[in-house]
């Protein structure tokens, strides 16, 4: 969610499809294993040897594909998720209400992907340490999201809100709901509480409650 949208290719400039090699498939397998282990145990508790074993490789084999080791793998896991969310959240052709639609859809998706939610919850907490390899990533991620949601909330509220404060409150709500949901998924309705919060901000949520 924290990166700008992908560069768009000019029409009339076809680019040959990238050949998906055996090495590419191995990298994806390692990345999948890393994401699963990071989500389960956190970054600090997982070693590159653990990731290699989970992906059916030796430690040397994992290093061959990711010479930067566990730090490089961590950034690959985060960037891969961002590539997907950036297409959804930062589409320049959407208006503010469409962007809120996408936020609601992402919350719905997160309720079906506990591994992803656990990954971000654990890593964002660990990354509060300035020495953590993902510290700058999460610092920038929240800067971008605060600015993004401040623009959206400012527009849909017609100037009735302090958009910067509302954006901070929104992100705090989403993070807190995710933590509670991980602990008690049957007791926490993340989508419902998001809509309640938007209602408290004076935003008409009829479009989502009737859908």
Structural class computed from helices and strand pairing: mainly alpha
Rg measurement, Å: 19 Å
H-E order: HHHHHHHHHH
| Total count of strands | 0
Fold and architecture overview:
The two termini are about 25 Å apart. With about 210 residues, the chain is mainly α. The protein is built from 10 helices and no strands. About 20% of the residues are buried.
In short, what is this structure?
The chain has 211 residues and is an all-alpha fold. It is 67% helix and 0% strand.
Main features:
mainly alpha, disordered N terminus, 211 residues, single chain, elongated, 10 helices, 0% strand
Detail the topology: elements first, then pairings.
Blueprint: H1 22-41, H2 48-54, H3 59-65, H4 69-89, H5 96-110, H6 114-126, H7 135-156, H8 163-183, H9 190-200, H10 206-209
